[in-house]
Amino acid sequence: MNLDSKSLLLYAVTDHAWLHERKLSDDVEKALLGGATFVQLREKDASFEEFLEQAKEVKEVCKKYNVPFVINDNIEVALAVDADGVHVGQSDMETGSVRQRLGKDKIIGVSTRTVEEALLAQDRGADYLGVGAMFQTSTKLDAADVTFEELKAICGAVEIPVVAIGGISHHNVMELEGTGIDGVAVVSAIFAAEDIKKAASEMKQKLERVVKS
User: Over the stretch 93-152, which tens digit does the pLDDT of each residue have?
Assistant: First the structure.
């Protein structure tokens, strides 16, 4: 799958914390109806079987809306469900070996915090970068903050798309204006909302003013 940078505008990252007995795939569909353009399935505590089952269901929803679907960290699950790709951290696996396992047509995203990490990930075959954490976040307690200037420097240094991540909300997303990002990755800003579809729609409207501004 060729990655269009426009598909990274509103990058939705799943989390079970706010499901309250609802199906994850149903919440993902609400986000897609609201305008989410990319989906990452993150299952930090699930067994392989549970992760695989969720991946199959979410993949079908993403396919229905023709939205790219990637797996967080787990190469085996990505291969098993034939996901569009994976997103890996600095310590998860070297980008080159991920590419070797997945093949040339899959999407690979890599988490970075510095220009040096960003350039290395690009050289090793990453298709896009996730840069952060931009703001304080409860989902990544060990994440070091990236400044506005560092984010801007990374965007200026690489030729592949950049997505800002970490604590981004409806209240602070406009602070990223002028950095050169292609989109933002959000978790609670969408999935913790009472009306997921509306939250996604409102975030996308703001992003259309922020991105490439």
Answer: 677 789 999 999 999 999 999 999 999 999 999 999 999 999 976 655 555 589 999 999
The answer to whether the CB of 86 falls within 8 A of the CB of 73 is yes
Confirm whether 113 is a catalytic residue.
no
User: In the structure encoding, which two tokens stand for residue 76, read together?
Assistant: 């085996």
Q: Which of 111, 113, 188, 197 is catalytic?
A: 111
Catalytic residue of the set 42, 59, 113, 197: 42
Coil, helix or strand for 141? coil
Q: Is 169 a catalytic residue?
A: no
Catalytic residue among 56, 101, 140, 204: 140
Cα 41 from Cα 142, distance rounded (Å): 20
Q: Is 64 a catalytic residue?
A: no
The rounded distance, in Å, linking the Cα atoms of 118 and 148 is: 15
* Pairing of the two strands 183-186 and 10-13: parallel
DSSP collapsed to 3 states, 110-146: EEECCHHHHHHHHHCCCCEEEECCCCCCCCCCCCCCC
pLDDT beyond 90 at 23: yes
Of 184, 200, 182, 192, nearest in space to 138 by CA: 192
Amino acid at 54: Q
Q: Which of 170, 166, 144, 164 is nearest to 152 (CA)?
A: 164
Mean pLDDT of 64-74: 97
pLDDT in tens, 136-177: 766 555 555 899 999 999 999 999 999 999 999 999 999 999
